[in-house]
Amino acid sequence: MFGYIDLNPKKLTPEQTGRYKAWYCGLCREIRNRYGQLGRMVLSNDMTFLTVLLSSLYEPEEESGSANCPLHPVRKRAFIQSSATAYAADMNLLLAYWKYRDAERDRERGIQKQLASRLNSAYDEICKAYPEQAAGVEKALEQIWAMEDGQEPDVDRLCALSGDMLGSVFAPKEDVFAPVLREIGKGLGKFVYLMDAYEDYEIDIKKGRFNPLNALQGPGYEELIRDSLTGMLSEACQAMDLLPLSQDIELLHNVVYEGVWNRYALLEEKKKGGKEKTES
User: Fold this and answer.
1) Which of 61, 97, 173, 239 could serve as a FRET partner for 165 with CA atoms 20 to 30 Å apart?
2) pLDDT digit string (tens) for 71-88?
3) Is the full-model pTM beyond 0.85?
């Protein structure tokens, strides 16, 4: 569920990369302040992107500085925070709770169940504060689980539900921008589900777990996956272009045009290396 919406620092200046890292550290500080050290275990780049996106759109007042933390006790780290950081921190915990619940279903059940239970109180508070977002995530995930348990290989439907899930958390309030923000989340959510299934395919098959991509195996499989991923990102990018964004626009474009492909590129390099090794 997490880890695909990331930055590609190779295509940015050191100053731009430093600013994105400062947003990341600001989100980490916000999660720690709101939920303690356990919350830091669930920090994700996905919600860093949401922080930058919402801050660029609404332009709230920023707080910046530098500080030490338990993870980096020697050298102070720059941070940036805004009201968008607080919202993203809550959504980070909301998604993390369901991530542990999801993982609990088929692997490391004891550990994941324990982690999910430790987030229960925070989850309950978030549900009270953001009932629509919480309900949207729960509804989408329950439908995904029902399809996976029934081994229904409808990849388009599964990706759409994942899009609904992430789209639910991309709009912090009901205003003129909310429908567009949800469309950005939906496009990225579709991409995340398909990438996760694509990355996990071999191990899922080896362990006898359901993977919807099993139904797509055959000639043209790799091209189909690549084209589908590209189309999903195109949906997110087209929606993002509708928003009046200027602040940190280079960072936002870097994530949706470059960074989201980081894991895909690593998988392709691994496959290429394995193929060359086999041929030699």
Assistant:
1) 61
2) 677 788 899 999 999 999
3) yes
